[in-house]
Specification:
about 400 residues, alpha+beta, Lipocalin, Glutaredoxin, nine-stranded antiparallel beta sheet, 25 strands, about 20% helix
């Protein structure tokens, strides 16, 4: 009898403790990854019922519901990328580290309830940056130098937009101008960017921070006529090659090649990507929607994943997670693991002059001939450029299918 009473008492205490567990407060929170020199990469999010957050960057909303509570600890894991928040929480605060295991990166973070502003603003702007900006990153470093096009809209202090490069875009940037100082940030659940610059009427000089592991200078000048090079001319077949060839394993361990029956006499799109790559995620979402809406006996897609995961097993897990989360209907093959090096990737596809970007898309006609190689991807954050890309893509693929 005493044992029964003791058991009931323990169960009642446990039940009471469980009932008293509190979760982060619903509503708007301000969050930031903290860098050196007192800098931070801020972003906003919404908590909902202690079981879901929505990360916010300008028009973008990223829902995350893989959240685990244990005592006063909380673990928040992105549905696609491998980044994870590990922190100690109360109803109003969360502090801890944001961790990228495969890259051995750790960045401290904090979250506070009820503080909605991304950046603190004390004064009015003295410049307007609405328009297009001809931009150069690492202008004095021949090895790291690359060009971009800044596209911005300003309303009062508030600024939104992105930088387009020849290989993709920096997604939804959200920020402000105070006086002549510009600050923009974005966080997609795995990748954190901060841009700080001093602006005149027609020039911009600043620093770009990628998490706490990389920073580089950039310069820009206002130029509404500026255009980036054609993305269809940057990667091409080397002289002496007329086809793309590869054999890589899918997530079931089966070897897949372009000579397989499923690709024979069909238009094939080969997507060079990585599950860690934000532009690849944007592109894959679009390709998945297009493929599902335009199923045809004459069209196939296949993705080649270049992963920085340290082992083949962990790389396959990343591909499976990516595939299931997005609902990708076409095979994703593991082309490389242990590094995302483009130089190493070139060794896997030696018929290409280079792999300049993740993603890169190869368009192959029904005869197996390469008709186009498109470098990068203009995602939804680029606005009109995204619309132009999708219209051109659909017209070109439709033409290949009809041949």
């Amino acid at each position: 009898m005493k044992n029964v009473l003791l058991l009931l008492t323990v169960l009642m205490i446990f039940a009471c403790q469980k009932a008293e567990q509190k979760f982060p407060k619903d509503g708007t929170w301000r969050a930031a990854l903290t860098l050196d020199e007192g800098r931070e990469i801020p972003f906003n999010l919404e908590w909902e019922k202690g079981s879901k957050i929505s990360i916010q960057n300008a028009e973008e909303r990223i829902d995350v519901d893989n959240i685990t509570f244990f005592g006063d600890s909380v673990y928040i894991e992105h549905p696609v990328f491998e980044g994870i928040f590990k922190g100690i929480y109360s109803t109003d605060t969360i502090t801890g580290n944001f961790i990228s295991p495969s890259l051995d990166r750790v960045v401290p973070f904090y979250m506070y309830a009820g503080k909605a502003k991304r950046f603190k603003i004390k004064g009015a702007p003295t410049v307007i940056i609405t328009g297009a900006w001809e931009t150069v990153f690492s202008p004095d470093n021949p090895t790291d130098r690359y060009i971009a096009k800044g596209i911005f809209e300003q309303t009062g202090n508030k600024v939104q937009g992105t930088f387009r490069t020849t290989t993709g875009d920096y997604r939804y940037l959200d920020g402000m101008i105070e006086g002549d100082s510009l600050k923009l940030s974005t966080f997609d659940g795995a990748h954190a960017f901060l841009f700080e610059a001093k602006v005149s009427d027609s020039t911009m000089n600043g620093i770009f921070y990628s998490g706490n592991h990389w920073k580089e200078p950039f310069t820009a000048k206002l130029n509404n006529e500026y255009q980036l090079p054609n993305s269809d001319s940057l990667t091409y077949l080397k002289e002496g090659f007329d086809k793309i060839e590869f054999t890589f394993k899918d997530t079931s361990g089966k070897e897949v090649s372009l000579v397989d029956d499923r690709f024979k006499d069909k238009v094939v799109l080969v997507q060079i990507m990585g599950t860690w790559c934000p532009n690849c995620l944007d592109e894959t979402k679009y390709f998945t929607e297009y493929y599902n809406d335009n199923k045809s006996e004459n069209l196939e897609m296949v993705a080649l994943a270049f992963e920085y995961a340290k082992t083949e097993e962990s790389a396959m897990k990343s591909i499976t997670k990516f595939k299931e989360s997005v609902g990708v209907p076409y095979p994703i093959l593991l082309a490389q693991y242990g590094t995302s090096s483009k130089q190493k990737a070139n060794e896997k596809l030696p018929m290409l002059n280079h792999i300049l970007s993740y993603p890169t898309t190869i368009f192959i006609d029904k005869k197996g001939e390469v008709r186009r190689i498109h470098t990068g991807f203009n995602g939804p954050a680029t606005g009109d450029e995204y619309t132009k890309f999708t219209e051109d893509f659909e017209e070109f693929v439709s033409g290949l299918v009809k041949e």
